[in-house]
Structure formats: structure tokens, C-alpha cells
């Protein structure tokens, strides 16, 4: 039931009539011959409002080509960009925290 509601909402957004402008596209080999892809750019609708977005998806291999196993799409607001810039440039005062491993969680091996 939830999946049907999500699909109905996405279809109602009329993305077929949006113009997409890709700024960056990065891909990297991943788990079991899959590929992780990160795309950034702009979407412009009929209202001519240009909105920044970021999308990450995982392409899982199949017999002929790939299929999208996971897909995350997000609009990026200007205030979010400013906050990230401040953190990267070291202007935000962040208290250091010691991270300890969760004993119930498997650790990765390199």
C-alpha cells in the first residue's frame, strides 16, 4: 500500500515536463561488480524555477547490463550548501567526539 502511494505521488509531480541540466556525474566500481553513481545538477519546471539537486544510485549487474537497485534523490537548498561550506572551511565550532565500535556490528575488512 505504501509503495503504491509513493508511486502515485512521484507520478503526480510531472517530472516529464522538467528540463534537466547535469553539472557533475561521478561513478565508481562497487560491491559485486556494481556501480555507484552520483549526479548533481538543476531541474527547471514550467514555473522556470531552477532547483539544485543531488542523486545517488546503485547499478546492480544483471545478465544484460544493469538495473537500479537503490536510488536517492534530494533537492539541495542554498542554506544547506552554506552550512557545508562553513564546515569544510573550518568556521563552524564542532566539538570532537571519540567514536567507539559497536561490539554487535561486523567490522569491514580491507
UniProtKB/TrEMBL annotation:
Keyword Disulfide bond: no
Highest taxon of source: Eukaryota
SUPFAM superfamilies documented for this protein: NTF2-like
InterPro entries per UniProt: NTF2-like_dom_sf, NTF2_dom, Nuclear_transport_factor_2_euk, Ras_GTPase_bind_prot
UniProt keyword Isomerase, yes or no: no
NTF2 domain location: 1-75
Keyword terms: RNA-binding
Cellular component terms (Gene Ontology): cytosol; ribonucleoprotein complex
GO molecular function, one term: mRNA binding
Protein name: NTF2 domain-containing protein
Phylogenetic placement of the source organism: Eukaryota, Viridiplantae, Streptophyta, Embryophyta, Tracheophyta
Amino acid at each position: 500500500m505504501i509503495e503504491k502511494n509513493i508511486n502515485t505521488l512521484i507520478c503526480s509531480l510531472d517530472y516529464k515536463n522538467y528540463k534537466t541540466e547535469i553539472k557533475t556525474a561521478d561513478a565508481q566500481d562497487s560491491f559485486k561488480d556494481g556501480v555507484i553513481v552520483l549526479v548533481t545538477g538543476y531541474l527547471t519546471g514550467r514555473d522556470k524555477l531552477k532547483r539544485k539537486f543531488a542523486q545517488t544510485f546503485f547499478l546492480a549487474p544483471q545478465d544484460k547490463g544493469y538495473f537500479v537497485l537503490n536510488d536517492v534523490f534530494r533537492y539541495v537548498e542554498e542554506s544547506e550548501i552554506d552550512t557545508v561550506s562553513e564546515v569544510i572551511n573550518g568556521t563552524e565550532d564542532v566539538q570532537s567526539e571519540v567514536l567507539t565500535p559497536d561490539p554487535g556490528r561486523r567490522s569491514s575488512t580491507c
